[in-house]
Design goal:
The chain is mainly α and 79 residues long. Helices cover 67% and strands 0% of the residues. The protein is built from two helices and no strands. The chain has helices at residues 14-34, 37-68. It starts with 13 loop residues before the first helix and ends in an 11-residue tail after the last helix. The relative contact order is 0.16.
Length: 79
């Protein structure tokens, strides 16, 4: 489930997503130390949204690199 207050994270780059994830992870640690359960829930929901979008973008980048990269399947014989 995405956080309802996060708008349009599709336009963020992978680096920006990493920065947001890092920042939210620090805030989550603070929330755990203070024991604020409501804050923990909200930060985890936002963190899941950013991590999901980050995983999508990394997977898309991997797929595009794999498709456009050289094909060595006929060059390597390990038998």
């Amino acid at each position: 489930m995405d956080h309802p207050l996060i708008n349009n994270i599709d336009s963020l780059s992978i680096e920006e997503l990493q920065s947001k994830i890092s920042d939210l992870t620090k805030k989550l640690g603070f929330a755990y130390r203070t024991g604020n359960q409501n804050l923990i829930g909200q930060i985890r929901l936002a963190l899941n949204s950013y991590q999901g979008k980050y995983n999508e973008k990394v997977q898309a980048m991997y797929e595009s690199t794999r498709k456009s990269g050289p094909d060595f399947s006929d060059k390597i014989d390990i038998s």
